[in-house]
Amino acid sequence: MRKVILRRLLQNIVLVVVIVLVVFILMRLTAGDPARMKAPVFASDEILQSYREQFGTDRPLTAQLWDFVSGIPRGDFGTSFRYQQPVFELIWQRVPETALLAFTSLTLALLVAIVLGVAGARRPGSAIDRFGIAASTLGQSAPTFWVALMLVLIFSVHFRWFPAVGFTGWKSLVLPSIAVALAVFPADLRVLRSSMIDTFHQEHIRTARAFGISNRRITWLYAFRNAALPLITVVGIDLGYLLGGTIVAEVVFNYPGVGQLAIDSVNARDYPLIQAITILTAMVFVFVNLGIDVLYMVLDPRIRIEA
Amino acid sequence: MSEQTQPRLAVRNLTTVFHTRAGRFVAVDDISFDVYPGECLGIVGESGSGKSVAALSIMGLVDYPGQIEAGRIEYAGTDLRTLSENQLRRVRGEEIGIIFQDPQTSLNPLFTVGTQLVDVVRAHRKISKSEAAALAIEKMKLVGISAPESRMKSYPWELSGGQRQRIAIAMALLLGPKLIIADEPTTALDVSIQAQIVDLLISLKNELDFSLIFVSHDLGVIQNVANRVMVMYAGRMMETGEVGSLFRDPYHPYTAALLASAPTLRTNRSEPLQAIDGRLPSPGKLPPGCVFAPRCQYVQEDCRVRQPLLESIGDAGRRVACIHPLIALPDEVHV
Question: What pTM was estimated for this model as a whole?
């Protein structure tokens, strides 16, 4: 088991390095000159040139790549073109807010998916089951930016329960979390519901019933543990939606997180900032999925043995 | 079995149906039987004859869309059908144990043998985990599992088929039930293991004095285990009686055909086996008269019209559902 994890860890490091290189090259292939973004509209060529020299974008690609790569081991991810601050600092200030938003969204999504998914699987076709399916269809088809705007309209503008923008405490977390969770929970719910229904039809569940194990224990221990395996795979995939969803929600709610920063940095062609955010996101994605594989081994002894 | 003893289980007019989109299928049709203390009742029939559904119905384990439509299932004087889900839960495992066909799928793959056994004990008794584990180990020894302490930590898929089925039997014995239902307990096993499991069940039954319902399509196995036997076909009971006399002199043409089609060690291997022509009628399209009439080699005109009732014929306890049974009655001559 330890060997497998170690191997996966090495694979993941290689993967992150490849992602970093691709982003580095891709950024420089896209149209737009960071110097022009920074400078006033009708700036002279001298001013543009001075910016290019400051940013280092006048130098050959290989030299730029070397600067970038050689900085990483020292924890130097470069200086933001736009903010003139080390990018690491810029991002680090905003990580807690985004992590908080992602965490509450995922928790909310899982809570809804588990409650509705299990209840629906216990009685397929019942009112609660149909409600769960209808809600997940709605969540899947409504785009996050629209849901976010509707939430603002209803709960901030009309009822004035929650702030519409910014971050001023837990209340600022409510609407963005709901907006993101609504996009994330449908996949969880569908997968959990169907794997739970499958599990309920398995013979070992009939055995548990035949030996007088209580329904609650059968559902939440015997069946859920079997059905949770596909669910945690989907949670790994969710993470992609979660990262994308938080960007949208952060922009709509003007929430001061990494997502906002990402959008700003792309608009400004702020290469160092984009690169650093990409590395961070890739690492989160890759390592959470590694964690999920470990969880898989913990939950299913058969996988543990094969590994 | 003396006539005076009360049956431990008395099933009356049990009818179990499945409601599907294609219609209503009667899987078990108006079946009555008794199981007496310490005896083994064998239920035989082809696949799809309703024998397993009948056995599962006793414990209320028929899953949706199956449903017990009528009948009484009296266990120790109580009709199990009138019990609440929670009352029934207490009967399951405690009063009536069950052994399923395939221990590979009937045990949960994610939990150790020990966890599953302990959980069953603690679903019924308020005792500590270590006390429950001690009980589990005791039963594992009883079913002949070597090094039961270390087997407790094994997952079901780490064990061989025979060991798994022994664990399943230990689980059925855990709380000392008075009745054990074995639903094709040897079908999924290697032939060499089958004999061991059958012998184990017989010796356990004699030692612990529980009643056993043994469901199987294997006539040889039934002949070894059962005291009385019940032959099912298309959801109906065809014939029932003491195992010795029924196997020696089957009165129902279906029983006779079934016996003739089963190979034994004395079967002449140069001759082809006598198969029963045709197929089991689909439950949606049962023939109007005797359900076996389309395949019966002794069929007569009235068989196709009139549904035979189960009637006592011949020796004690023998009942046959046939208008023209294979017995020479004094005033009738049969082919």
Answer: 0.84
